[in-house]
Design goal:
Length: 218
């Protein structure tokens, strides 16, 4: 299924987004879903990491609608992709043929942490050029302000994952992107940067111009 949005009236769209956001509740303890994996292998099959399908779906929809809304507000043409044909959540395009393939990841359970598919550790292996691949990481955990949206090029995400895992990946189909954590097995090193500091994550907040797409609204 595909939903296309143009930078025009968005009342109905905003209503859907509000409904989704109002139903996403953070757990009492941030470790309920992520557990303690500072010095352990991150295993998505761990029972402590499991979230109900309802909460996962609401968080996913909230993230995708939020990113699509912010893009359309800035004058970008977007198409939401629902399904697995392309493998990305949003296509952003312009009238001269530029296209950006955007994967959206949302977290409502733990600040600055998202679970990503293993393909983002090696974006060069994808059929789509890595220069056209992006990951929008949405942090839904703030309760006193708007959610944060990081617009990461795929190469930056790969850098972050390789830094956190020291290039030693397991056979797991998913890896964690944790901006507020140090690399595994290096948590006690005083001068060791967090993943977020290593990649300069604050430089990518709301950085939609990094998509390289021409806005239709000047």
């Amino acid at each position: 299924m595909l939903i296309a949005l143009a930078p025009a009236g968005q009342d109905d769209f905003v209503v859907v987004l509000i409904v989704a956001l109002n139903h996403v509740a953070a757990p009492e303890s941030p470790n309920v879903y992520f557990g303690n994996f500072q010095n352990h292998e991150f295993d998505p099959s761990n029972s402590m990491l499991k979230v109900s399908n309802e909460k996962k779906n609401l968080s996913r929809l909230a993230g995708e609608f939020l990113v699509a809304s912010r893009l359309s507000q800035r004058g970008y043409m977007v198409a939401l992709q629902w399904g697995t044909t392309i493998g990305y959540d949003i296509l952003v395009f312009d009238k001269v043929g530029h296209v950006a393939f955007v994967e959206v990841k949302a977290s409502a359970s733990h600040p600055q942490r998202w679970l990503l598919q293993k393909k983002f550790a090696a974006p060069s292996e994808e059929a789509i050029s890595k220069e056209r691949q992006f990951v929008c990481c949405v942090d839904l955990t703030p309760r006193d302000r708007e959610p944060d949206v990081y617009v990461f090029p795929a190469s930056v995400v790969a850098n972050a994952l390789n830094y956190f895992y020291s290039g030693q990946f397991s056979r797991s189909p998913s890896f964690v992107l944790a901006l507020n954590m140090k690399p595994r097995h290096r948590t006690r090193e005083e001068n060791c940067q967090t993943v977020g500091d290593h990649i300069g994550c604050h430089n990518y907040l709301e950085r939609f111009e990094a998509l390289g797409i021409n806005s239709v609204v000047r």
